[in-house]
Amino acid sequence: MEKLFIEGDAERPRVEFDPETGILEISESSYPEYTKEIYAPIVQWLEEYLSEKGKTVIFNFRMDYFNTSTSSRFQKMIDMLEDYYLNKEGKVVINWYYEEDDIDMYEAGQDYAKDVTLEFNLIPFSL
Question: In the chain, what are the domains?
Answer without folding.
Answer: 4-125 (3.30.750)
